[in-house]
Design goal:
single chain; 56 residues; mainly alpha; 3 helices
Length: 56
Amino acid sequence: MPKYIQDKEFELSEEEYKELDNLANLMLNPNENFDNLQEIWNNTYKFRIMSGALNS
């Protein structure tokens, strides 16, 4: 998951939920949405830093 979610202790704003919903919808068809996903990757840093069992 993106680390900022953990840092906020899962207390997200409505706008943050909308951003995540948009990202999730794009990821349903990554081949068709590659350009949009690449733009998000290149320009939305908060989605690039991940948190998980191996990199907490």
